[in-house]
Design brief:
Helices cover 31% and strands 41% of the residues. It has one helix and three strands. The protein has one helix at 36-52; strands at 2-8, 14-21, 27-33.
Length: 54
Amino acid sequence: MAYIRKRPRRDGSAAYYIRFKGPDGRWRELAAGSRRKDAEVLLRRTLEEVAAGT
């Protein structure tokens, strides 16, 4: 289970984060940058790593 989350920064711009469950079952959050496309790429890569067990 995973999703992309948009959060405002202090300067008013937006930042995207990905939240996912790690191999141990705990929720993790990683900053993905200011573009949603970057967040989608990071989410896909992270989920592949979790599925592979690395």
